[in-house]
Every structure is written in structure tokens, then in C-alpha cells.
Amino acid sequence: MPFYEFMCEGCGPFEELRPMADASDPAACPACGGEARRVFSPPGLALLTRPLRCALEREEKSAHEPDVVGEKRGRPMSHRHAPAPSWVLAH
């Protein structure tokens, strides 16, 4: 039987071992007994390269706790256009 991850609104995440047939059913929180919904998380892939693993972790974190930034980041975009083909008329 596989482990599934659930999220209790008051207590936070927990895992539960259950049959695949019951995977989508809500679970009872082990701390408070309240109903918890299943959350989908990526499998633990240890063979990913470090940059890709860091990017996936940053993406997962931003879904729940987006970073607040005060300045633009990243490379500036170039606004140069490729030369127009000869059949295009210029204004």
C-alpha cells in the first residue's frame, strides 16, 4: 500500500498508508480528528540535477508562500526585432 499526503486546515500536512482504491477519500487528521483533503505532491526524485531540483522546490514553495519582491529580477528582455523579410513593406 502506498503513502498519500493529506492537509488538515488546522494542524498541517500528514501522510497516511491506505489502499489505492481509497486514495481520493478524505482522511481523519491524527492530531485533531478533523477531515483532511488529499494533496498531490511530486514523487521524491533523487536523480534530478541540482538546478532542476532547486527550480522544482522553488516552484512548489511559491504555490503556497509566494515571495514578495521589491525589484525586477532576471535578465532584461531585448526589444530588438529580427530583420523583416524582403517581401514585407515598411511604413
Describe this structure in words.
- There is one protein chain.
- The protein has 91 residues and is an alpha+beta fold.
- Helices cover 16% and strands 21% of the residues.
- The chain has a domain at 1-45.
- It has a 4-stranded antiparallel sheet, with no helix packed on it.
- The longest helix is centred in the middle third of the chain and has 15 residues, at 50-64.
- The N and C termini lie far apart (68 Å).
- The mean pLDDT is 82.
Task: Describe the protein's topology.
Layout: E1 3-8, E2 12-17, E3 27-28, E4 35-39, H1 50-64
Antiparallel strand pairs: 1-2, 1-4, 3-4
Distance between the termini: 68 Å
Beta-strand percentage range:
15-25%
Overall spatial form = elongated
Question: What structural class do the secondary elements suggest?
Answer: alpha+beta
Low-confidence stretches: none
Helical proportion, percent range? 10-25%
Note the total helix count.
1
Compute the CA-based radius of gyration.
23 Å
Helices and strands, in N-to-C order? EEEEH
